[in-house]
Design goal:
With about 100 residues, the chain is mainly alpha-helical. It contains five helices and no strands. Helix 4 packs across helix 5 (about 85-104). It holds the Pfam family Myb_DNA-bind_4.
Length: about 100
């Protein structure tokens, strides 16, 4: 597919950071409908991506974030990624919440 621009990724992350979208994504595996919503919202920003592209980009960002985070947790500072802070704001807290839930 066509390469995602910085602005497109920013827009995707902005939509993803919507609490409503996050809750839907956390609660389901069959998420085509959610990504159709995401794609529709991107369209409003003038970004033409279908739900599959959105889902793939979401998965890739999430995967990259996790590997950077794991590297950092093990003391390595060499790995980093664009948008790490934005993703950390979304994903960092959810992993913390899950950790504290399993403690109780």
């Amino acid at each position: 597919g066509k390469h995602w621009t910085v602005n497109e990724v920013r827009a995707l992350i902005r939509i993803w950071s919507d609490k409503n979208i996050q809750q839907q994504l956390e609660g389901t595996v069959r998420n085509k409908r959610i990504f159709e919503q995401v794609a529709a919202r991107l369209q409003k920003f003038g970004i033409d991506r279908d739900w599959k592209q959105c889902r793939t980009k979401y998965k890739n960002l999430k995967h990259e974030y996790k590997s950077v985070k794991n590297a950092q947790d093990s003391g390595s500072t060499s790995r980093s990624m664009k948008f790490f802070n934005e993703l950390d704001a979304i994903l960092g807290h959810s992993t913390m919440e899950q950790a504290s839930k399993s403690d109780n």
